[in-house]
């Protein structure tokens, strides 16, 4: 009663003070609105009036790294008129946000060079490739005019392929078939147990009735008279499609036994799409993920970005900071600024000479680099669409290639580019140890088991990236043993006039959202410091 009364009182008071909109969002905060509003942390970009109105002179900021975090830092600070310069070691913006097209080259840390020979219009997103609806990345796409299209992360027609399971091994199974069988048998078991009284401690008579009604719907199982049996349904798919006149279609069979379905482990794949960041709908920029860094670079101003600039030393000074780097012509140069933002991977920054202290170096070395690899395979036909009716989506496997991705662009076209492996850890290292041609051969030898010989015979071009063997990047992403320990704390604070930014300093590692929000945090910290001085 007391709680209710004070709730009402609170709502009335904000209702009076703030109007209906505010009342509504306050209801959300209390869990009363139909769907509570969720958004990224409050962020207010620095504004152009902030300097002029307060009579302060605009500050100079040097950013190390033209990846998403570095670009976003310069972009946001630029809104208030900060004089930002970006030093980027590579010859392009984006960092791991990298779209490979025909002509793209890569020389890895082992000195091996590849040149992509993809056809016109074909590309692979070698780094980030999917955007969830909740990520601020979508807000930046809106702000920067980067058009989006759906990225298909989950497709009922894609397969699950397990060759090491006890049962059904080596047989690609469509997601829809796997779901029909797992949901069906689980429903059968639970309905039987419920009906038999095995759950009477947990359930009232009404609960039992409702639960059974749900399970019949969820699992497409038979009624009580037939023992709630799961015997298959058209949810599995068809071996002969229904059609005109007398063609009813033939439901795919035979239905494997409950024991085999459980042993196959296919059900363990389902939770992937329950993940907060991996659930449909997802998006991708039209024409390649690198539309984001190129739009950011344009907004920052191309003249503010120096490519081919390799950081050699970062010095915190009494009243600023300075960076010494080697330029594209091999000359050593030094630039001074009020602040430096190091938006490069921690293990790379750890090797840059600096005067920020041994504890900073130790903290930078603390997160561990995660090996990640990807291969793009261009085919002369879209056989996965024409022969297998797979339009986008992903086939997870228990092979070392991990997953095969079907393209979410160019449907019904003449050619198309798959991702033939996207793997982490030991699997990524196993592939990266091989020269490019052998990586492709290995991936193809696995893919043939799912898709047949055309997986080899139709292949025309391939390009592989091993992020952990890529200069100035050296990992797909990093992992922290602890993000509450002193290392993480230290790097989330400035070392004098030097700040750190990147997805690695967020709780959304391996997503551009992490890089954007980290940049916003550093921008806010710098701007508050400047405005307070
Ligand atoms: N964002 C990357 C991806 O979607 C890496 C990642 C995978 C991050 C799984 C979290 C979970 O593939």
Automatic annotation (TrEMBL):
Residue intervals of the Amine oxidase domain: 68-526
GO MF terms, alphabetically ordered: oxidoreductase activity
Domain of life: Bacteria
Database matches in InterPro entries: Amino_oxidase, FAD/NAD-bd_sf, Flavin_monoamine_oxidase, TAT_signal
Name of the featured protein: Flavin monoamine oxidase family protein
Organism this protein belongs to: Streptomyces scabichelini
